[in-house]
């Protein structure tokens, strides 16, 4: 994760992050905050799909799917868990789940509550230059932002087994997240002579409430005993958010005298509705042939109304330069087909997906309308060959698309202080990527993957200095680079060090290069060779005790205009399993407090150095109790809005 909470996998960003096969509703900081509210005890495993087939939605360079635990045992089963963690501030997670299953009905429900306090400490050294390279001004800034999340997550549903071949089910979910950001900013302004000329402070006191409600209706028909089936999903999802913001800025002369003050208030309301219908057919034929096909249609409408007021005089007056009302409408229609065949040692899959996209973005305040309509094809193929019983090689490729998130297109302004704000870019284009991978596996245990990808119109976080009302400000936004390419080698090598000690090692070596022109700064094939390594060590200590030690190192990386310094972390943990099906765990993450990012952004007329300190060093004690029977049954996967939820939030 970078300084803006954007997630990358093997050096590639713009990922699709899913929870139980459904895309999360956020990106960037909003996604990170959502994931912080999920108790680790409720996570079963994390899946990485680095080169998805045509069956998957074409969105995202790769897919990370976080699978939550779902009790599928017959009878009545459930679990209770709680955890208490502390770093600088307190964190508490609680979760309850229950499931009842008999021959005809499977009923499930779960509820989780998380209270988390944490901080984001951002230190900036920002330098501005004229077109001749002469120093103009600098801001030396210290920003401390504290959050207090109160996150409720609930989900319930039922599967009804009509007969051996027909299953119908539904589920409903709700998320409520309240937090009150408290930010304190202090800044020193240097003039063209590089001497202090003034200071200013900004206090941010805001109240935010994010809500999400979802409903899924699903049907599954088993066609034959070979595994052929027809599935259909209907989804409705709503996201809404309100934010009351208050920024109090005071400007001081260098002698400490108050020269002026400003009060800015914001009233932000957002509402997003998603409707999705999909149907998939999987047909097994004779001689190990298999055909898959499906259709999908989705409709999205986002309505965001942001009003800012100048309250300096004591009477709020609408600030027309910051106020905006943005409506985004989108319709995507998709059709795909896959054909696969398996021989004794060789297997292959060919697929093609077509997606038609129709979008309209309307700025009500300025009466500006942006429309885009396009249809694209997304082929994919996999070739797998068993050299012998222990050696396998696989070659695959796919074409992918990453559409801008809804907030990346939203021209609203989100302020950090009077000199810094984030805004969307309604002219942002989707990026398309061709992915190629060659994998060698030994004993289905050791893996080596050589991969190459080429991206057009790469969506990139950028900084744009500009002049507003006579003052130099920096706009954090997204823009399209001309291209980005990636060449990497990924290795996995588990080692059985001793009977009681298992070590799982992985290493990723890659080179990324970027070409484009943003903020009058042209780069061509800018990047570097870099790597990251990870080692997870598990220890069986006997009598129900186990322990774990995880270490990770990430080398220096050049990502377009950003130069990230290396960092590393070390996590430790231990657990005890009791005979009453309960588990007690203790863990400390980032015990040396070394995983926070530091970087330098370089443009032709702007250079920025930043250091981000977050509460990564946390000690957590957790307890989980499982109750019920132990007869297993097969889980079901449902949901058809997989490519939509990811694109909500600050991407």
Automatic annotation (TrEMBL):
Bias kind Basic and acidic residues: ranges: 639-651
Cited PANTHER family: PLUG DOMAIN-CONTAINING PROTEIN, TONB-DEPENDENT RECEPTOR-LIKE BETA-BARREL DOMAIN-CONTAINING PROTEIN
Tell me the segments the record calls region Disordered: 632-651
Q: Name the major location.
A: membrane
Q: Where in the cell is it found?
A: Cell outer membrane
The species is Chryseobacterium luquanense
Q: Pfam families recorded for this chain?
A: OMP_b-brl_3
Ranges for domain Outer membrane protein beta-barrel come to 222-625
Protein name in the entry:
Outer membrane beta-barrel family protein
Source taxon at top rank: Bacteria
Query: Top-down, what is the taxonomic lineage of the species of origin?
Result: Bacteria, Pseudomonadati, Bacteroidota, Flavobacteriia, Flavobacteriales
Keyword Membrane among UniProt keywords: yes
- Answer yes or no on keyword Membrane: yes
* Keywords tagged on the record: Cell outer membrane, Membrane
InterPro entries from the xrefs? Beta-barrel_TonB_sf, OMP_b-brl_3
């Amino acid at each position: 994760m970078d300084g803006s909470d954007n997630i990358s996998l093997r050096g590639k960003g713009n990922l699709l992050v899913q929870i139980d096969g459904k895309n999360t509703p956020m990106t960037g900081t909003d996604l990170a905050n959502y994931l912080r509210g999920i108790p680790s005890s409720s996570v079963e495993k994390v899946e990485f799909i680095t080169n998805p087939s045509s069956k998957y939605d074409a969105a995202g360079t790769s897919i990370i799917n976080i699978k939550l635990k779902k009790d599928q045992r017959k009878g009545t089963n459930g679990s209770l868990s709680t955890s208490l963690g502390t770093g600088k501030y307190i964190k508490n997670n609680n979760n309850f789940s229950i499931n009842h299953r008999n021959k005809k009905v499977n009923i499930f429900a779960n509820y989780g509550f998380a209270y988390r306090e944490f901080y984001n400490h951002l230190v900036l050294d920002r330098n501005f230059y004229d077109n001749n390279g002469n120093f103009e001004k600098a801001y030396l800034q210290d920003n401390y932002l504290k959050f207090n999340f109160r996150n409720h997550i609930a989900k319930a549903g039922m599967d009804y087994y009509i007969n051996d071949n027909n299953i119908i089910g539904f589920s409903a979910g709700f998320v409520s997240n309240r937090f009150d950001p408290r930010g304190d900013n202090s800044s020193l302004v240097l003039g063209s002579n590089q001497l202090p000329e003034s200071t200013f402070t900004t206090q941010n006191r805001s109240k935010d409430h994010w809500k999400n409600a979802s409903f899924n209706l699903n049907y599954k028909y088993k066609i034959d005993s070979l595994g052929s089936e027809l599935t259909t999903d209907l989804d409705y999802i709503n996201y809404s958010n309100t934010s009351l913001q208050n920024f109090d800025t005071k400007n001081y002369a260098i002698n400490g005298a108050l020269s002026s003050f400003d009060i800015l208030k914001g009233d932000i309301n957002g509402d997003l509705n998603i409707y999705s219908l999909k149907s998939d057919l999987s047909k097994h034929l004779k001689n190990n042939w298999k055909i898959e096909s499906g259709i999908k249609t989705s409709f999205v409408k986002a309505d965001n109304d942001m009003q800012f007021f100048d309250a300096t005089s004591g009477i709020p007056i609408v600030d027309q330069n910051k106020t905006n009302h943005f409506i985004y409408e989108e319709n995507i229609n998709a059709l795909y087909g896959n054909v696969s065949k398996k021989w004794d040692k060789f297997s292959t899959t060919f697929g093609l997906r077509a997606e038609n996209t129709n979008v309209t973005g309307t700025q009500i305040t300025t009466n500006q309308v942006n429309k885009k309509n396009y249809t694209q094809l997304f082929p994919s193929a996999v070739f797998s060959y068993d050299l012998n019983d222990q050696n396998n090689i696989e070659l695959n490729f796919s074409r992918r698309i990453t559409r801008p998130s809804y907030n990346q297109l939203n021209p609203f302004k989100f302020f950090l202080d009077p000199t810094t704000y984030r805004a969307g870019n309604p002219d942002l284009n989707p990026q398309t990527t061709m992915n190629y991978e060659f994998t060698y596996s030994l004993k289905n245990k050791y893996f080596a993957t050589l991969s190459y990808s080429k991206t057009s119109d790469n969506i990139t976080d950028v900084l744009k200095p500009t002049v507003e009302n006579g003052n130099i400000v920096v706009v954090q936004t997204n823009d399209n680079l001309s291209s980005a390419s990636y060449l990497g080698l990924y290795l996995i090598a588990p080692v059985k060090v001793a009977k009681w000690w298992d070590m799982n090692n992985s290493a990723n070596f890659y080179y990324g290069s970027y070409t484009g022109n943003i903020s009058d700064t042209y780069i061509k094939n800018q990047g570097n060779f870099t790597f990251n390594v990870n080692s997870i060590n598990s220890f069986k200590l006997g009598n129900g005790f186990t322990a774990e030690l995880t270490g990770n190192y990430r080398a220096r990386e050049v990502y377009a205009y950003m130069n990230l310094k290396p960092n590393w972390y070390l996590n430790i943990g231990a657990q005890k399993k009791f005979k009453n099906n309960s588990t007690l765990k203790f863990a400390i993450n980032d015990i040396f407090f070394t995983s926070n990012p530091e970087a330098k952004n370089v443009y032709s007329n702007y250079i920025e150095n930043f250091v981000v300190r977050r509460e990564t060093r946390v000690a957590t004690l957790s307890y989980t109790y499982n109750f019920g029977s132990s007869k297993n049954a097969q889980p079901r996967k449902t949901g058809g809005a997989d490519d939509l939820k990811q694109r909500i939030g600050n991407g």
